[in-house]
Amino acid sequence: MDRYGLIKGIAISFILFSIPMALAPLFNAPLSKTLTLMASTFALEYFAASVGAGMGLNPFFVLITILSVGAGVVVLMFGIFEFMGTRSNKVSGFLAKSHGKAQKSRIIQRYGIYGLIPGAAFLGFYVCPAIAWILGWKKDLSAALIIFGLGVASAIVLLSTLGVLGLVL
Q1: Alpha helices per DSSP H over the chain
Q2: I want to staple 41 with a disulfide (CB 3.0 to 4.6 A). Which of 32, 58, 69, 83 is the partner?
Q3: Domain ranges of the chain
């Protein structure tokens, strides 16, 4: 994967980032609140669910927005990492060493990738793609597991926030 992979990652990310704006009218969400939720997702990751709930947005729209922004970030990061890995000899050497060490561990090879599900909650969607890339895990499965973990964490935060708001209001 060379420049084409990076361009493809940017294009897919752009499409994923535009999904919330395209769906906003269907959920009666003002564009300003949609952009605020998207920006909050970049900064707060799954905790942005509280921001969306606090703004009175539809819970399904909040989850869709967080997941599409998270997926866009993950795809973009994998594209950047692949581009760096093919362009830099130092990065390529580091990857070869890391892949070699990871291959020696049966546990990491067999079950390690599933650690991305809780990893999305504890480490976030900025760190997990780097871990998956360094360890040489399949990008498609890694991205799916990271987004699944993000969805679970977002749903828990959203449900907790709605419950707390229900008690307060």
Answers
A1: 3-23, 31-44, 48-54, 59-87, 89-104, 106-111, 116-122, 128-135, 139-168
A2: 69
A3: 3-168
